[in-house]
Write a structure and sequence with these properties.
disordered N terminus, 3 domains, Ribosomal Protein S5, domain 2, single chain, binds ligand 1YM, Heat Shock Protein 90, 38% helix, 8-stranded mixed sheet
């Protein structure tokens, strides 16, 4: 093409082939082309600024969502190097944006970048997946700019003026022929930038959304780093140690940890590798947990808090009520697991463990009051665990006397092959009745729940075994809870929560998700938990097949489509489903249970974490934040039954 008018050498051809590969199989490089992948593009560009901050040259990153979903990221670092790169014979900046996996390899000094994020991609991948990209660099008093379309250079790096200061500005429009949607979600970006600011002490990150008339804006900068992070996570909780315990050590694998105990019963440990949230944990988490168990037991023995006759505290006792953030930097991270967010590098376990051993032991010796307060709680957790064991055995004995270990209300399926079986947990007896009649009994089991749900926030495991609402769930799933939970024993490959699309339904969903998150976490990590999606509306007309709509948008679309076929609104009967109980068995099967037609939403760890956060807020000890939440969200509540 005349417009580009470059002479392509062998290297350039390779470059183009590389970026073509990215456009052909974007998922390989960016994870997915869903909204998740779209947001990931922003993170990749921002990460380059964060790396510059970690190297000590950048103090501020500003992100703007411009009208039309154009993203602009600007930092005040050194500016991407501009000189001709010896290998590619083009400017280093252009190389970074056009050569796959270029990154820090071109940056001169080694140790520039702890290799990549989740997908280890970078600027060139974002460039390849964008309709256009514009990079502006301030360096040595000169303003440079280069431009690309779909990854191809359309304007090589050139001087366009003079500059004060240094830095890099990148603007890009993601390619709408590649991504499912270009609608960035401000809240997702805001949450991630807050997280980055916590993880990068002192770095100021701002985000501004200019797409709507009233712009949204936020600014994050935490001098306290992880300490601020833990304080933020615990802001609504009652704390045992006032200032978080802080551990930091540089070395082959730099480690930074902050710990604060609360009076709650839940365990909240967030782990990061190279600033990426490792939701599924991994070797760093393992090292941290092992060390906690050892150090607290040693301290308790040495100070006679645990007597000779006492058995050791278990890991779960010591982690009750803990909030911690563990952040490590690993040169060549290996990510495993369902969502590639589990650190696999085996050497990290020992490194984290020995580092925490030393630092934590010293801390406890120097702060005996904190040590004592935490250990008192651990010991009461151990007692509760023992009580739970007894309660569990009692339940087991009772059940074995009744010859069946399955709850009475469960309508089980005939197949016994877990992989093909599913259990619907249904709120309410009438919906349960319809589900029982409508199901395919070969592989679908129904467990109706009724009565008042236990507040797991305020109960320990012993109460949960005895609870008449949760106990049937535990027995039906068949794999135990807490540290006894054994995923190989699950009786159903899919555990499906089926609740009404109203406030009560949302409540039961949140409660069950929180219960699974706290007591059967591997079930979520393994992708076994689903939400059924019942329809909100039915459109009907004589002689026409019923049309079910699952959202308000669906309904609008259906009206429009039918109008195009010559059927007007007033010819149509509209039924709004207030609850599952209003559907007869055939309707329930057809709309919500038939694997050929139904919509199931797989619950991810992110969903569960969100449910847990909301749950803590709504059910926890502090009243004021609950009031605030309700006031703030009341106006968003839809479908309220009046
Ligand atoms: C808004 C995005 O990309 N900032 C940025 C990137 C780099 C540098 C500074 C940088 C790195 C080095 C030296 C070095 C990058 N440079 C490279 C490469 N912000 C943004 N700011 N000088 C400047 O690594 O030594 C890749 S990224 F490879 F050219 F060095």
């Amino acid at each position: 093409m005349e417009k580009y008018n470059h002479k392509y050498g062998a290297e350039q051809i390779q470059v183009l082939e590389g970026l073509e590969a990215v456009r052909k199989r974007p998922g390989m490089y960016i994870g997915s082309t869903s909204v998740r992948g779209l947001h990931h593009c922003v993170y990749e560009i921002v990460d380059n600024g964060v790396d510059e901050a970690l190297a000590g040259y950048c103090t501020e990153i500003n992100v703007t969502i411009e009208p039309g979903n154009i993203i602009c990221v600007e930092d005040n670092g050194r500016g991407i190097p501009v000189e001709i790169h010896p290998k590619t014979k083009i400017s280093t900046a252009e190389t970074v944006y056009t050569v796959l996996h270029a990154g820090g390899k071109f940056g001169g000094d080694s140790g520039y970048k702890v290799s990549g994020g989740l997908h280890g991609v970078g600027a060139s991948v974002v460039n390849a997946l964008s309709s256009w990209t514009e990079v502006t660099i301030k360096r040595d008093g000169i303003l440079y700019q280069m431009k690309f379309e779909k990854g191809k250079t359309v304007q090589k790096l050139e001087k366009i003026g003079e500059a004060k200061g240094t830095g890099t500005k990148v603007r890009f429009l993601a390619d709408n022929t590649i991504f499912e949607s270009l609608d960035y979600e401000y809240e997702i970006l805001e949450k991630r930038f807050r997280e980055i600011a916590f993880l990068t002490k002192g770095l100021k990150i701002t985000i501004e959304d200019l797409r709507e008339e009233t712009p949204k804006k936020a600014e994050f900068c935490y001098e306290g780093g992880l300490i601020s992070f833990v304080e933020y996570l615990n802001k609504n909780k009652d704390k045992l140690n006032k200032t978080p315990i802080y551990i930091e050590k540089d070395g082959e694998v730099p480690v930074e940890i902050a710990i604060q105990y609360t009076s709650s019963y839940s365990e909240n440990i967030y782990t990061f590798v190279n600033n990426i949230n490792t939701i599924e944990g991994g070797t760093h988490l393992e090292g941290f947990k092992r060390s906690l168990t050892k150090v607290f037991n040693d301290y308790a023995r040495n100070h006679n808090i645990l007597k000779e006759k006492d058995s050791n505290l278990q890991g779960e006792d010591i982690r009750e009520g803990i909030t911690a953030v563990v952040s490590v930097k690993v040169k060549e991270p290996q990510f495993e697991g369902q969502t590639k967010t589990k650190l696999g590098n085996s050497e990290v376990t020992g490194i984290v463990q020995s580092m925490v051993n030393e630092a934590l032991a010293t801390f406890l010796e120097e702060n005996p009051n904190v040590a004592k307060a935490i250990l008192e709680k651990c010991i009461s957790a151990a007692r509760a665990r023992e009580a739970a064991r007894k309660a569990r055995e009692l339940v087991r004995k009772k059940n074995s006397l009744e010859t069946s270990t399955l709850p009475g209300k469960l309508a089980d399926c005939s197949s016994k092959i877990p992989d093909e079986c599913e259990v619907y947990i249904v709120e309410g007896d009438s919906a349960g009745g319809s589900a029982k009649q409508g199901r395919d009994r070969k592989f679908q089991a129904i467990l109706p729940l009724w009565g008042k749900m236990l507040n797991v926030e305020k109960a320990r495991a012993d109460k949960i075994y005895g609870n008449d609402k949760l106990n049937p769930v535990i027995l039906a799933v068949g794999a135990g809870i807490g540290s006894d939970f054994d995923i190989t024993k699950i009786r159903y490959g899919k555990v499906i929560i089926m609740a009404d699309a109203d406030v009560d339904g949302a409540h039961i969903r949140t409660l069950l998700l929180t219960f699974f998150f706290r007591y059967m976490r591997p079930l979520i990590e393994n992708g076994n938990v689903y939400l059924a999606q019942p329809p909100l509306y039915k459109l009907s007309k004589k002689g026409m097949e019923d049309v079910y709509c699952y959202t308000d948008e669906d309904l609008d679309k259906a009206y429009k489509e039918l109008e195009e076929k010559g059927i007007s609104r007033d010819q149509l009967g509209l039924q709004r489903y207030k609850g599952l109980g209003e559907m007869n068995p055939e309707q329930l099967w057809e709309t919500t249970m038939d694997p050929e037609k139904r919509i199931l939403i797989k619950v991810t760890m992110e969903d569960a974490i969100k449910a847990d956060e909301i749950f803590t807020l709504l059910m926890g000890d502090e009243v004021e934040p609950r009031r605030e939440f309700i006031q703030k969200n009341a106006k968003y509540v839809k479908n309220l039954d009046i």
